Amino acid sequence: MQIFDPKFKDNKLHYFIQCGIATVSVFIILLILDAIQNTAIIAALGASSFIAFAMLNAKVSKTRYLLGGYAVGTSVGVLCQLLMNVSFVQKLPLIEHYPTIFFGALAVGIAILIMAITNTEHPPAAGLALGIVLNEITLKIILVIVIGISGIVILKKILKPLLRDLI
Known about the structure:
The protein is mainly α. 69% of the residues lie in helices and 0% in strands. It has helices at 12-32, 39-54, 63-84, 87-90, 99-118, 123-134, 139-159. The longest helix is centred in the middle third of the chain and has 22 residues, at 63-84. The model has no long low-confidence stretch (mean pLDDT 90).
């Protein structure tokens, strides 16, 4: 049984540098957002950092999937969060007793469907849609999501010639 990736031996520096880049990206996001209240949103950005900096050649690591998936996940999450807070919707059967559960599940399902239809599949973005429903959404959170994923994409594009696929 092999414990270490065979590529690690010849690419140690890349492993440490690329993981360091992901660490710094998430660190900056954690500094800006309340890490306790926005855990699902931060977790999505952390997962996307892994995908962007370790899985360079994977389909989900391409700009279209990172930005497109986040556009879908954010939009669907915000829409479901807004619908959840509409007074007549809150009185509907099933929703009345479990609004967060209902709209959280709905956000994930709709985000997956739209990402699949638009060819922007990015798994952490489905989690992001759920995270938005579970948290009180603010303009600051939306801005951090947009700036965070954009920063990851820009950093990956700038550094791509120096990076290696670690997977």
